[in-house]
Design brief:
The chain has 343 residues and is of the alpha/beta class. The chain has 10 helices and 10 strands. The chain has 2 domains: 2-117 and 301-337, Nucleotidyltransferase, domain 5; 127-296, Nucleotidyltransferase, domain 5, CATH 3.30.420. The longest helix is centred in the C-terminal third of the chain and has 30 residues, at 233-262. Bound molecules: 5'-O-[(R)-(carboxyoxy)(hydroxy)phosphoryl]adenosine and zinc ion.
């Protein structure tokens, strides 16, 4: 079965074709980062308008790249939430309209399920059950994954998401948008031990996260340094190092707890922050020590992409699922409400 996947939940217009026999046939993406950079963050109305402009040409491109006649798929999967409603509506409307005219089913996909299943696109995919750490710009959660769609949330953030904490801290430190990856690059030049920030919530039981206090600690450190004039880049790098280390340590500690509690032997990390090199390094050390295996998507599938949506849609299509005809999207949508696919 072959599925066209469409992702428009935020600031990337992404399209892919996944085939259950042949695997990923083609994928393409247009990032709106340059457009939003001048405003220091995503402007929802501009995001929607740009999805309208880019989506149809990208769909044509992906069929060409897969060497398929236009429309030669069995279903269309689209991100139906969570995300920016206007942006989601663009993908949902086009997906539904194309599916109607091509007389094929359409499938509403949960964006975080897409991220969670992205490592399945790699050569050595994880096997169920596993623990998933989902760390993106909008979400931070630990999930007990029994099979596709059978998700139990073990813990989530009480305030900022990990990616959001990276982005907000980067902004505070004067880095341009999108700050997360830049802050992490700056941290690579920092020296360990110069600054020390708290590891939030690690002394409390449970697997929830909180990152807003850490953001305040960085703000105070920056303010204190700025008293003596402009902060040299090397000091900024030391602050970035300490911030990244605090976020990474917190995530690692909670992942270890989740592995112990569930007794699963595999940990999956996905979402934009799973691209972070230090996080991968420290999670690998922890997983080795626990005799567990660590899985993550290739770098380009850590952040938003169409491949993960096409893949998730294909799993649901194979299980005989499809969505009703209404064009429905959700700004908020719990992973736990999804229907399980028992494959
Ligand atoms: O999954 P994603 O592309 O979009 C959402 O669904 O939110 O994640 C984007 C987030 C942003 O907050 C970005 O700053 C963060 O992922 N991010 C990183 C890195 N690369 C992307 N954060 C830390 N280190 C990175 N290398
Ligand atoms: Zn995402």
């Amino acid at each position: 079965m072959r599925v066209l996947g469409i992702e428009t939940s935020c600031d990337e217009t992404a399209v892919a074709i996944y085939d259950s026999e042949q695997g990923l046939m083609a994928h393409t993406l247009f990032s709106q980062v340059a457009m939003h950079a001048e405003f220091g963050g995503v402007v929802p109305e501009l995001a929607s308008r740009d999805h309208v402009r880019k989506l149809v040409p990208l769909i044509r491109t992906v069929f060409k790249a897969a060497d398929l006649p236009f429309g030669e798929v069995d279903a269309i999967a689209y991100t139906a939430g969570p995300g920016l409603v206007g942006a989601l509506m663009v993908g949902a409307s086009l997906a539904r309209s194309l599916a109607w005219s091509w007389e094929i089913p359409a499938l509403a996909v949960h964006h975080m399920e897409g991220h969670l299943l992205a490592p399945m696109l790699e050569d050595r995919p994880p096997r169920f059950p596993f623990v998933a750490l989902l760390v993106s710009g909008g979400h931070t959660m630990l999930v007990d994954v029994q099979s596709v769609g059978a998700y139990e949330i073990l813990g989530e953030t009480l305030d900022d998401a990990a990616g959001e904490a990276f982005d907000k801290t980067a902004k505070m430190m004067g880095l341009p948008y999108p700050g997360g990856p830049l802050l992490s690059k700056l941290a690579d030049q920092g020296r360990p031990g110069v600054f020390e920030f708290p590891r939030p919530m690690v002394d409390r039981p449970g697997m929830d996260f909180s990152f807003s206090g850490l953001k305040t600690a960085v703000r105070n450190a920056v303010a204190e340094q700025a008293r003596d004039g402009e902060i040299p880049e090397s000091v900024m790098a030391d602050i970035a190092w300490a911030f990244q280390e605090a976020v990474v340590d917190t995530l690692v500690i909670k992942c270890r707890r989740a592995l112990k509690e569930t007794r699963h032997r595999a940990l999956v990390i996905a979402g934009g922050v799973s691209a972070n090199r230090r996080l991968r390094e420290k999670l690998q050390d922890m997983a080795d020590a626990q005799r567990c295996k660590l899985f993550y998507p290739r770098l380009e599938f850590c952040t938003d992409n169409g491949a993960m949506i096409a893949y998730a849609g294909c799993q649901r299509l194979q299980a005989g699922q499809q969505s009703g005809l209404a064009i429905e999207v959700k700004a908020r949508w719990s992973l736990e409400t999804l229907e399980a696919v028992n494959g």
